[in-house]
Amino acid sequence: MKNYLSVFIALAIIFSGCSKSGKDTNTGTVNSWTFTEGSKVFSGQLIFDAQLNTLLQSNNSYTFSMLGAEPTTGNTFNLILSLPDLNFTVKTYQSGTAGNDYLNAFYYSSLTSVDDIYKSSNLDPGPIMNYSITAYDAAKEVVTIEFSGQAQLASGSFISITKGKVVAKIER
User: Fold this and answer.
1) pTM of the predicted model, to two decimals?
2) Which of 23, 67, 75, 95 sits a CA distance of 20 to 30 A from 109?
């Protein structure tokens, strides 16, 4: 138990020290995320700028990913989308769908468990999460993504995720 506490404290220090954020007057707090499940609101900062891999992947897409932490729990937020281009021209995406090889996924996880608290992933189809690109500032390289839908609990049951939003600075 002492080792878990030491690891948790070390990661919390790293997460808070590496966090990048700022204010963008058009989109809100840059490198922030939030979502709601029932009456519970989860929010935090991205640990690094969102990463956009500019190398075309074998599934003819570009991997866009971000990782964040919730400051009170240390739980992690992870969002991954397979983009057809580098300019966010496609505005809607889904995770939890079968029949494609896109890496679209939403994970909310605890550092102390191997099971995700919430997940929606094309690698494990079932609960469908919808994502919308609601703003993209090419000059500032900032994107806003809103999301909602279903996620799966470790028990296998589905729950509703609402009011999801990420504002992210893009690193290419």
Assistant:
1) 0.83
2) 23
Locus of tokens 């891999």: 53
Q: Annotate 104-133 with DSSP letters as a single string.
A: -EEEEE-TT-SSEEEEEETTB--S-EEEEE
| Local structure of 16: helix, strand or coil | helix
Separation of alpha carbons 22 and 47, rounded Å: 13
Among residues 116, 106, 62, the alpha carbon closest in space to that of 84 is found at 62
- pLDDT computed for residue 14 by the predictor: 41
Sign of the dihedral through C-alpha 28, 87, 150, 152: negative
Whether the Cβ atoms of residue 152 and residue 15 lie closer than 8 Å to each other: no
Q: Is residue 135 within 8 Å of residue 126, measured between CB atoms?
A: no
Cα–Cα distances in angstroms (integers) from residue 147 to residues 42, 47, 151, 167, in the given order: 13, 20, 11, 12
Over residues 79-128, the pLDDT tens digits come to: 999 999 999 999 999 999 999 999 999 999 998 888 999 999 999 999 99
Give me the amino acid identity at 117: I
Domain locations in the chain as residue ranges? 2-171
Burial 77-107 (b: 16+ CB within 10 A, else e): bbbbbbbeeeebeeeebbbbbeeeebbbbbb
151 bridge partner residues: 159
- Would you say residue 39 has pLDDT above 80? yes
